[in-house]
Structure formats: structure tokens, C-alpha cells
Amino acid sequence: RTTMKSLRFISAEAFVSNAEFARKSLGGVAHDLFPLLFKASYLLEQGEVIHDLVENWPLFDFNMGKLLGATLDYQEDLSHRTCSVCLESCLTGLRDYVLNQSSPYMKKLKVVDLTGIKDVEVQFCKCKKTMGRWARTQLLSKLCSELLVYLQQAQCNPGTFEISINVLIDLFVTERNYELVLQALLKKCSCPLKICCVAFRSDNLTLQKFFYIIKLTDPSLLRKLEIVHNVHLEMEHLEILFNSIHFPQLMSLTLPARTFNVRRFTATDEQMLTNIGEKMGELTQLTELSMSFSILTGRIQKLLSPLKTPLKMLDVSNCSLNHADMAFLANSFHANHLEALDLSGHNIPELYPSTFFKLLSHCSSVLRSLTLEDCNIQDTQVNMLILGLSPCQKLQEFKFIGNPLSSQALKHLFAFLCELPMLKNVEFPVPRDCYPIGITYPIDDASLCRFDHQKYERVAEELNLILTQANREDVKASTPLFGSYDAAVQETNNELGAYLIKSFKETLEKFTTSFNKMS
What we know:
This protein has helices spanning 7-17, 19-25, 34-43, 47-55, 64-68, 84-99, 133-153, 178-186, 207-216, 235-244, 267-281, 300-304, 323-331, 348-351, 353-363, 382-389, 407-417, 453-469, 487-518, and strands at residues 61-63, 111-113, 165-173, 193-202, 224-227, 252-254, 288-290, 313-315, 340-342, 369-371, 397-399, 425-427, 476-478. It is of the alpha/beta class. It folds into two domains: 7-131, no CATH class; 197-502, Leucine-rich repeat, LRR (right-handed beta-alpha superhelix), CATH 3.80.10.10. It has a 13-stranded parallel sheet with strand order 1-2-3-4-5-6-7-8-9-10-11-12-13. Strand 7, helix 12 (300-304) and strand 8 form a beta-alpha-beta unit. The protein is globular. The protein starts with 6 loop residues before the first helix and ends with a helix. Keywords: Leucine-rich repeat, Repeat. It comes from Certhia familiaris.
């Protein structure tokens, strides 16, 4: 698919394609052409030109999302290209903007917004080397620290110390880059490049370090907070977090697995949960909430009823919800606003079929993404599911891997899915008849790949043919056995893997020590 380019854009490409000529000629370029030249350089991966454009940026703001997004000159959105060459050139150009004392342009830059960069699975850049969110966090922190060292040692123009640029970024902090980010945040006041954290993700971090660094990020600016995987945050820590820090702009909150476990609740815990619910009610901007893999049986109302703003995204996958929880969700004011819903890991047909379909009918006019993985949906329920999904005309994404459906039932379902006009992404299970007879659901990890791969390929081809015959080649259908692509996990999987091995080793050592004492 080729995107039309204006004559202006074609000229810009020609100009930047000769890097040496473009860099020499920048001094004579009109201010309003810089954004055009930047996008053309980004498309052609002209790192040196990108660096010099940013180093001499003559405008008040530099917004990556807008600069790379669809423009009149070139409609294609390049913000999902996290090309390492381009992004590194951008950030080093920003550092040199501060240091460059001979630029012919007056230094007007006040705001740099890096939050519009989107991390995706498939990259189209020629270098094929990406710079993800973690690496962007690492590089910006490193450049801020280097800048301070240089300014302290060198004889700089007094005007350099008056430069103050707010750099809006989505930070991603783990044990490995913690010290570097910490130093950059601690010295923020002295640095001309001021890190402004709009979204914060922490993984593989001790609670002590998490609490220390989150306070330094300026929580009053924070719109999104993700505490995931190897941060051992439990309910009492969440209460401390909400009591000690105010998040007036927080719109999205993700909590790690096992934050809540109502099975071992005491009267004190019940009161703590009530307090947390009330504190969440003070987050007046909150519209996205993810609490997967916590045990919340019978407590959804206590947590969600204090919320004053309706939720647009709710992930309560594998939270052991009961009928009362589902009834609350179906009848709550959130139901009519839910654009993304994840109820994976609940036996919907057996536990609360009618209540679930009531919830689905309430959110059908706005629902864009529905995830029902490992929900024990069987062939006999497919017609009911089709009936429930029929009003969901805005549905863009439907994920239902891990359900015991036959290839025949999947074909029937796909014939219906073709009719949903906005649908773009479907994640479907390996058909039950591809597995050995007697397989039990949910399928354990050891048995997950033990299916007839040739038969699966034939069925997948038939399902894609159904889409093709309905002129729905725009729909991507796949079976990601081990879950959907997660850019953040992908980028840090080596560190997380090492952490898990270390944890397993420590647990084994404790067990051996205890066993030896018993012996």
C-alpha cells in the first residue's frame, strides 16, 4: 500500500537524502519547513540530518506524535516506527541543542513531547533495530546526567543555564536502569532538560525503590501508572501509596497480580479494602483499571462503587468473580461506557451466562475490545455468543483463545465475525479437535503445544478463506499460544528471566535449608 506524497514532501525527501548537503544548508531553511524535513528524514532514516534538525530546532515545541503522525503532505503515520537510529539521533540532538552556542536560530524550545511514540510488534525501518520504552528511558536519563557533568566542567555561555525544556516521556523503570533514572530525577532542577513523567511503568523493582522513585516523578503530572509482574505490591502497600501520594490526573491504573486476595481476609482487611475504594473514588480522572490475577470474589462493588467517573477499560481477568460481582458490573453505570473489557479465566457459561449477556448488551454500543480467554465457551454456546455480539458494531478486537471450541464451531463464528464492520483483530483458539481426545481445559502449559499442527494449519487456512470471501482481508486472525505481543515484556524479557531464575534458586535454597533442619 503506497501513500500519496505531496510535491512539498517529495522535495523534502530529495533535500534530506543528501545528508552532507542538507546539514550544510540548514542555516538557510525557513522555520516552518523544519517539521516537514523532520518527517522526511525520519522516513528515510537520515540520522545525521535528524540530529542537526533537532539541534537547531527553531520552534517553541517539538511533539513527536504530531510530527510523525498523518499530515497533509504525507498521510502515513510513522509514530509506530521506533527506529533506533532515528530516536537516538533525536535525543542526542536535543542534548546538543542545549550545548550548541553557535546556532543561527534563537533558542525558543520549551516543550518536547516524546509520549506519542507507539511500540508495536512489526517494524518497517531499514535498520530493523528498535528503541523501546525502556531504552528511551535509559538514554534520556543518561543524556541528562552527561549534560549536567559537562555544564559543571566546561566554560559555557551564561545563556545555556537559562535554557529550560520540559521533556514529556513515558518512563519504564526496572532494577537495571533504576540508578540512572533516579540520578536524572534527583538533579532535575539543575538540568536544562527536565524529565516530566506522564506515564510510569515499573517492573522487577523492590517496593522501597518503587516508593522512592514514584515520589520523584512528580505524581501530580502522572496520567498512567503501571505496576507489573515483579513488584510485590499487596493491599496494605496500595493503601499506603494512596494515603501518601495524590494523583490528580491519573487516568489509567494497572496493579500487579495478587495485589488482593480476599480468601485470607480479616475484618481489618475488609476495612482496608473500603479505604482503598474510597481513595480510588478520589481519582476523578480514572477511566482505565486493570487488576488481573487478584482474588476479588464478592468485592468488586466495594472497590468500584466509589468511582465517580465511569470506566472505559476494565481488566478483571482471573479474579475469581462470583455472580454478585457480575451482577454489579452489569447494573453499574460503568457498563454503558466500557470500550475494553477483559473477563478471561471465568467460567462464564456455567456461572453467570445471563448476567454476562446483560453486561454485554449494556456496553454493546461503545465496546471496541473484548477478551474472553479460558472462559469454557463450548460449541453449544456459540449461537448465544453470536447473539450477544451482534449489537457490538464498534468491536475492533475479539480475543478468545483457550476455549474448547471445535473447528466447525470456529467456522460458524468466523462467518458471523465477518459482519462486524470495525473488526480488525481476532485471536482464536487451537480447535479442540486438533488436540488428543480427552484433553482437559484450561490446558496446562506442558500440553499447550501438543496438537496436530498440520490439521491446525488447514483449519486456519479455511478460517482465513471465510474472511477473504467476505472481502475482510483487513481482519488479522491469529493464535498466539502464549499470549498477545507485549512490547514492554519483549524488551525486558532477559532481565525478567534472570530475576525469575534467581527467585526460583532462592526458594529452592530456603526449601533445602528447611528440609535439612527437619532432617
